[in-house]
């Protein structure tokens, strides 16, 4: 090892030994201080309220006010004092109750306190001073300890003692004993577990009043202040229940059989709620005890809300638990020193660290430098009395340097305190609002600093062109860290909000209207419906990709749901329309709007053509008119003639009307002199056949050429036959009564093919007569019969002439008239006589 290395090694050893000696000396110098006075010893309830009497099982607080001013400025770091605590108190063992700091008003740690609970009761607390006492004198303070009574006499005054050194201090309070429980259905409380400060034991006392328990259900829910439940929850395997017997004060005097809770406990909401279902058990009018545990986060208040439900009664009760805690305060006066307190000019409660000062003694110019600590304080060493000047040479980060010089006077036995302010560096933060969609009337924007609301707001509206700024806000916090600013706006219904930062450190808040609409769609059918239809949604005329399938099972109705009312890119109101996937054989009609809903009407469709042909039987007419009817209504008339070959087709006719198939018929206007028949159908075509028609008469007479029946052989009647195209179709009997005339009337002039019928006549053979027929249909027929037999001799017959007959009638009439006159005269004479 060379010489230089040896020197370095020896130096290190020397330094380490020096540090060890200093530490040992410091520890050795620390002494117990017994001349500490207890100036006040008070017992209160948990909420620090003094009462005339306290319950035997109540949680209490011991308040000790101590005074170490007898030691002046002689106390040093490590010095301590002990307080022996009352042996009729029991002190908690949790860390927050046994280890705590004794704090000055400005947050400095004056001392460290440790409570050592006794094995059964009582205990002690050791208070060890920190380096705070090196710069302060006349130290005083308080201790606040949590405890419960132990080994006290009930219903009378008890004395409690504390001891510091050889000095004893006492106080007296009344302690009330147990009181009988009346009409208690359910009660609950929580208590600490000595071996685990991260868990709580909960106890539920059930049916102290011995009601009849049927259909029992127990529910419970955990909660905490400010809903800060954190990770606290039930410990699943900790649930136990027994049948017990309680004495009148609620304590258990007899433990009975355990109640199995297997498969009876269910948990919800991350194990912060449970239900115990005991409905299948007949619990009767017995008493029970339920125990279980929860996890616990020290320092929090955990609430437990239990409900006992039965057929006859339901009762709810709440209990809370907070771990035990202790605290202390202390403070003293500075020793012949200057203390500079550095504060924020805007908030004097904010103390600033990192400010460097130069202290100059006026008498000789001696300079000192010191820097403010985390409490914003810089304390000089012990100074010679005299005049001094204070000048800030380095400002805290985020603050302007204070250029002012301060003059102070240091006096023996006194502390000089100088408060110095710093103005924080400030900036302006612009804010701009942009809208996608319909604008609101105005919006309020809040400024947050490191996630906390600063209380500063700006209102943006159309009047300020949706722009403003937060003016003169701090750039750094009191610890010198640059503040991260964010903004939030009051929530707007139907808008999403996006905040971006611009290059100048300002904010742009973009609000997108998120209002949605539902568009109902109804399908109606005119005609037979199909199995289903598909409806497409169009946004601004473009396919949105959204579809609906409508069927009979959903009554042909559907809804496009939660559609953005405004376009997400530029904010215009979206024009929603719909279209239907084409259905063969149907026409589509769409009515309505996005606001009121759409109705799609599908009408069954199709075309038909009806060919019509005219056939003539017999001579054709010059033309004929045919008429098309749809459901009985005339729709079209066409003329058939030789020019169109007596044919026409009604083309492209709608097959349906209002969803029902149209009934088409074709008729022709009557053609005089023709009969008409119609064959065929709409699908194959219609054929009209017109047959020539007309009526005629065939007349005639019989002429006898027989010398006026000289032979006497002329028959009284004969039979004349009518022939149509050579075939006998009718017969007539002709006689003298008919003047030997005949007539065949109402005869068809044309046959079935429209050809004119040739009519002729003949007669049945007449014996001894020959027959000759002359004439025609138009002029009539004459049948001449000529006698062919032998002649018969002539007879003489006298015939009265016509002139003689007339003369005779005149003579007869004259005689009758003469006789009548004579009778009249005789009657007149006879009458006058009488």
Topology:
Blueprint: H1 3-29, E1 37-45, E2 53-55, E3 59-67, E4 80-85, E5 89-90, H2 95-98, E6 99-103, E7 109-117, E8 123-129, E9 136-149, E10 156-164, E11 167-176, E12 186-193, E13 196-206, E14 216-224, E15 240-246, E16 252-258, E17 265-268, E18 273-278, E19 287-295, E20 301-309, E21 314-322, E22 327-334, E23 338-344, E24 356-361, E25 367-371, E26 377-379, E27 386-394, E28 405-410, E29 416-422, E30 426-436, E31 442-449, E32 452-461, E33 467-474, E34 485-489, E35 495-501, E36 507-513, E37 516-526, E38 532-539, E39 542-551, E40 557-564, E41 576-580, E42 586-593, E43 597-604, E44 607-617, E45 623-630, E46 633-641, E47 647-654, E48 656-657, E49 660-661, E50 664-668, E51 674-681, E52 685-692, E53 695-705, E54 717-724, E55 727-735, E56 741-748, E57 759-763, E58 769-776, E59 780-787, H3 802-833
Parallel strand pairs: 2-11, 6-22, 23-29, 30-36, 37-43, 44-52, 53-59
Antiparallel strand pairs: 1-3, 3-9, 4-8, 5-9, 6-7, 7-8, 9-22, 10-11, 12-13, 13-19, 14-18, 14-20, 15-16, 15-19, 17-18, 20-21, 23-26, 24-25, 24-27, 27-28, 30-33, 31-32, 31-34, 35-36, 37-40, 38-39, 38-41, 42-43, 44-47, 45-46, 45-50, 48-49, 51-52, 53-56, 54-55, 54-57, 58-59
């Amino acid at each position: 090892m060379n010489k230089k290395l040896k020197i370095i090694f020896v130096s290190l050893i020397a330094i380490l030994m020096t540090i060890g000696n200093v530490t040992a000396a410091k520890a050795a110098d620390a002494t117990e201080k017994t001349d500490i006075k207890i100036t006040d010893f008070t017992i209160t309830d948990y909420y620090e309220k003094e009462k005339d009497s306290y319950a035997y099982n109540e949680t209490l607080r011991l308040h000790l006010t101590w005074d170490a001013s007898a030691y002046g400025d002689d106390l040093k770091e490590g010095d301590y004092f002990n307080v022996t605590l009352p042996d009729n108190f029991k002190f908690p063992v949790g860390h927050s109750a046994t280890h705590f700091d004794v704090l000055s008003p400005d947050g400095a740690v004056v001392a460290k306190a440790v409570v050592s609970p006794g094995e059964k009761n009582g205990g002690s607390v050791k208070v060890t001073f920190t380096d705070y006492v090196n710069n302060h004198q006349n130290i005083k303070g308080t201790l606040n300890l949590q405890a419960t009574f132990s080994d006290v006499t009930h219903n009378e005054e008890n004395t409690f003692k504390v001891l510091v050194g050889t000095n004893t201090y006492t106080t007296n309070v009344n302690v009330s004993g147990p009181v009988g429980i009346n009409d208690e259905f359910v009660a609950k409380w929580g208590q600490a577990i000595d071996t685990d400060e991260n868990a709580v034991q909960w106890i539920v006392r059930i049916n102290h009043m011995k009601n009849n328990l049927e259909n029992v259900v127990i529910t419970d829910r955990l909660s905490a202040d400010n809903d800060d439940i954190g990770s606290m929850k039930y410990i699943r395997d900790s649930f136990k229940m027994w049948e017990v017997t309680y004495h009148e004060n609620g304590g258990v005097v007899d433990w009975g059989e355990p109640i199995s809770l297997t498969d009876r406990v269910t948990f919800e909401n991350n194990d912060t709620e449970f239900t115990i279902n005991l409905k299948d058990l007949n619990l009767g009018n017995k008493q029970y005890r339920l125990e279980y545990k929860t996890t616990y986060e020290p320092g929090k208040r955990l609430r437990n809300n239990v409900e006992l439900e039965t057929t006859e009664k339901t009762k709810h009760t709440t209990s809370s638990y907070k771990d035990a805690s202790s605290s202390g305060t202390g403070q003293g006066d500075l020793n012949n020193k200057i203390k500079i307190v550095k504060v924020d000019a805007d908030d004097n409660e904010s103390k600033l660290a990192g400010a460097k000062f130069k202290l100059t003694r006026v008498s000789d110019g001696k300079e000192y430098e010191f820097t403010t600590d985390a409490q914003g304080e810089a304390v000089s060493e012990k100074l010679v009395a005299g005049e001094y000047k204070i000048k800030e040479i380095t400002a805290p980060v985020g603050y302007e340097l204070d250029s002012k010089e301060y003059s102070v006077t240091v006096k023996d036995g006194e502390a000089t305190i100088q408060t110095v302010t710093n103005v924080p560096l400030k900036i302006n933060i612009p804010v701009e609002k942009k809208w996608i969609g319909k604008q609101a009337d105005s919006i309020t924007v809040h400024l947050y600093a490191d996630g906390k609301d600063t209380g500063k707001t700006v209102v943006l509206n159309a009047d300020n062109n949706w722009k403003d700024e937060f003016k003169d806000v701090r750039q750094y916090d009191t610890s010198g860290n640059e503040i991260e600013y964010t903004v939030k706006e009051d929530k707007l219904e139907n808008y999403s909000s996006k905040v971006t930062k611009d290059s100048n450190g300002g904010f742009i808040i973009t609000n997108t209207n998120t209002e949605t609409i539902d568009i109902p769609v109804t399908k109606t059918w005119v005609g037979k419906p199909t199995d289903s239809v598909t409806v497409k949604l169009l946004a601004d005329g473009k396919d949105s990709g959204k579809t609906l399938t409508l069927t009979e099972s959903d009554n042909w109705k559907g809804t496009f749901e939660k559609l953005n009312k405004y376009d997400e890119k530029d904010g215009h109101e979206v024009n929603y329309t719909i279209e239907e996937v084409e259905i063969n054989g149907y026409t589509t009609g769409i009515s309505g709007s996005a606001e009121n809903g759409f109705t799609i009407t599908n009408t069954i469709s199709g075309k038909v053509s009806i060919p019509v042909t005219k056939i003539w039987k017999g001579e054709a007419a010059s033309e004929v008119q045919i008429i098309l009817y749809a459901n009985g209504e005339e729709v079209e008339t066409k003329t058939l003639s030789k020019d169109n070959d007596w044919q026409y087709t009604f083309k492209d006719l709608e097959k349906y009307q209002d969803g029902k198939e149209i009934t088409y018929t074709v008729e022709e206007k009557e053609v005089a002199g023709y009969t008409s028949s119609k064959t065929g159908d709409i699908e194959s075509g219609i054929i009209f056949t017109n047959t020539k028609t007309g009526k005629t008469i065939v007349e005639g007479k019989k002429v006898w050429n027989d010398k006026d029946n000289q032979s006497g052989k002329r028959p009284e009647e004969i039979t004349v036959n009518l022939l149509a195209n050579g075939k006998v179709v009718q017969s007539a009997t002709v006689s003298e009564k008919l003047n030997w005339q005949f007539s065949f009337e109402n005869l068809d002039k044309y046959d079935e093919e429209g050809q004119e019928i040739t009519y002729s006549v003949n007669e049945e053979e007449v014996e001894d007569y020959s027959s000759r027929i002359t004439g025609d249909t138009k002029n009539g027929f004459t049948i001449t019969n000529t006698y062919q037999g032998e002649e018969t001799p002539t007879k003489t017959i006298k015939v009265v002439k016509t002139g003689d007959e007339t003369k005779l009638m005149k003579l007869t009439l004259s005689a009758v008239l003469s006789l009548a006159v004579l009778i009249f005269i005789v009657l007149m004479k006879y009458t006058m006589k009488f």
